[in-house]
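Protocol step 4 of 5: obtain the predicted structure for the target chain.
Materials: sequence only (see below). No template structures provided, no constraints applied. The aim of this step is simply to have a reference model before the mutagenesis design in step 5. Sequence pasted as it appears in the construct record:
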Amino acid sequence: MKKLFILFALVTMMTSLSAQCYKIDTVTNTATVKFIVDRPVEFGAKSTLEELISDKYSLCDSGSIITGEIISIAMPEQIINIVGLQFLQRKYIITTKVIIDGKSYIGESTKTMYVSAMLMEVSAIPHNKKVFYKTMQQSLKNAVYYIYGSNKTKEK
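Step 4 output (structure tokens):
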């Protein structure tokens, strides 16, 4: 009887101390850019968010819902032409938002790509998918770090 009581107490304590469970619902895109080369910009964002959230929280199908949003995408570029040589600097600036427990957390990331060419038009070079998706991944990571309390500011 004593062992049964101890077992019951242990099971009760373990279930009450277990972490809250979350479910990644969707990652939407409200930015004006919808595709990068031939893929939707939200490609891979849900799995990235799941990976980042699962570092600190447990994931399940019936948990509290977490949603993500790609708020803005900017891709400014600067071209310098010097006697037949062209230099392109293209920046990828992505802002994302992660909503968990009714609170919004904003993340932003910037990456720069450089291209140089001789006797070729550098503005015709397509966007670099790898740089774009690494920037989006870092932006989501920054938003999730706000959830963890690693950064200072957040949006309510």
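Step 4 remarks: The radius of gyration is 22 Å. Residues 152-156 have pLDDT under 50 and may be disordered.
Proceed to step 5.
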